[in-house]
Design brief:
alpha+beta, 6 helices, two-stranded antiparallel ribbon, about 60% helix, elongated, 7 strands, five-stranded mixed β-sheet
Amino acid sequence: MFQGWITGAPAPFGSEVQKVLANRTHFNLAVYAVIVCAWHAWDYHRRYREREAQAAELATRLAQAQLQALRMQLNPHFLFNTLNTISSLMLRDVNSANRMIVRLGELLRLTLEISNDQEVPLQQELEFLRRYVEIEQIRFGDLLQVKMDIEPALLDAIVPNLILQPLVENAIRHAIEPQRTGGQIELRCVRSNGSLLLQVSDNGHGSMGTDSDEVSKQTRERIGLNNTRQRLQKLYGDRQSFELVENLSGGMTANIIIPCRLANASV
């Protein structure tokens, strides 16, 4: 009864393979497609991560270059005025001239010692600013009054490196120098709703809303503060704000708002 089945000739091997392949063609194509897609996805992710790393490195180098440029910007205008003042003082007040030379040397040494870190504790930033202000006060005498209102708990707050000196220099140049009677600059650092507010105010000429004040505001923005705005944008993105506003009683105030972080704690 089973003779036909036992003695029957076996099917050719090639035809069996063809049947298997025919039955698994769609499955094999699907597997191949998955493998190809997976490889392309991995390759795209690898290239994306490489581009992302390169972009981050370029951004870091750009930020460091801007910081170096900011250091160099301190030198020409400020140094020329300081050296001219020293030359003038040597003829009438040798002690003041000598004191100014000492302060200038200390400031230049501190400038060279400043790290390439984009952010530093507020206390370090204020130390540099005080050296700068001491020189300007020798230069202007009683014509320059500087007031600092700093919350002690914020001395460890993290701020951009060399962020305050350009604002104070800008105020001196546009609010103190033009006035024969001099003026006052006030620095405030306070914490508000998890943010750090840095303010540099002056009592220069001008009243709110006049065309001349708008021109003065644009001049200040164009000359000294564009670099500050760009640095803040790169460091904090949408978490920062920077504006120059006119005071009702005259003069202007530079307002910087950044996230409030302490060097040794989270706020």
